[in-house]
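the two lines:
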Amino acid sequence: MKESQSAIEIRDLTRRYGKLEAVHSLSLTVRAGCCYGFFGRNGAGKTTTIKCLLNLLRPQSGTVRVFGFDPQRDEVAVKSRLAYVPDAVAFYPWMTVSDTLDYFASFRAHWNRDIENDLLKRFGLDRNQKATSMSKGQKTQLALITAVCPEPELLVLDEPTSGLDPIVRREFIETVIGAYQSGDPGNRTVFVSTHLISEFEGLIDEFTVIEQGRNLLTMNADDARERFKKISVRFGAAPAPLALPGALQIKQNGRSAEILANGNSEQLMAELRARHPEDLRCESLSLEEIFVASKTLTQSGK
Amino acid sequence: MLFQIDFKAGKPVYLQLVDQVRYAAASGVLRPGEPLPGIRPLAEELRVNRNTIAKAYAELESQGIIETLPGKGCFLRANHSPFTKVVRDKLLLKEIDEAVVMAHHLQIDRGAFLEMVQERLDYFERKSGGSGDESSPKTTPRRTQ
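prediction for all of em together
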């Protein structure tokens, strides 16, 4: 895969449901081989965007390309290169685990049986169990197996871990890293929409925060953690309200204060140090904190 | 676990790994010729992107700290400084300056600072010369700025 080829290219995508505008002029680019986080609250437009990638919905304006293909015109070319795990998975209730896997495999040119066996064992799934009697966690595990076995170039995950217990969630992420990503690293792209961000923190190379259908913030994860920092300071005696030009946000509470910095933590730290605080520390915001604060971060960031 | 990742440290994850391998090598937790964890198991264990580990190992290799043997994995190299003395001095000076600035801000005077340096040198010497039974995860001391 060449650097120049992007896995996903979305330009000015707009999609309405009646009067409701779910996605408004959204643009983003996912490089091949990268793990891309798509963060947003419920109803922000994440699933609508993903459905446009899969040709389950058609854009009303703008373009969507997957590996350069238009999902509407070249549906087969797109779908043979990706696999999708939706938030609510449904299988035919009369099929067993084995039947389901064979059924999915019948649509694929390639199916890795070794991975299938490994993952069935790892998740402790019984080949003869019927889908009706499976728990939500087991259904998600089965969906993940159906997505990983074809070894697609792109894995699209829509809220994959919501409603699952912590152990299943952990296994899910380990599988994405291990069984999926390690196969052919340069050609393994992950696009994951989630609001359980902390679990995916280590996996995310780049992310977009979507808010009311608009791209609020797109950044590289390391850059974001380096830029957005939280400074905690405590003084010996309660100071007058802190005036710190350049601080994104100041929350003062008696002797202590919390200050948000946008790329200027060094300078703010120096200003605070000059006031001889009792305690002064600085840490990066996690991606989850960046998501929660993204409105503040982008408003004053300009 | 040999390595620990702190997303709040404000340092790119791959550089945290690089630092920790260098620390493990300096303190004798990892010895020359010993293997580093494989990329996939380490990525799964830390639950970080596989590419992050690969990037850290590539960086360590370019610094001459580890070497990759095809099909076998990555190993700590015996004599791991490819740099000339001038470059080494320069690299170290930068780090020392940072510590000196920090000491100034924390109001640690010259005597106390030098004492601490001595103490740390002794500590690392003891560890790398010792029995190597230090299994507790030693991460680079957290910087409070």
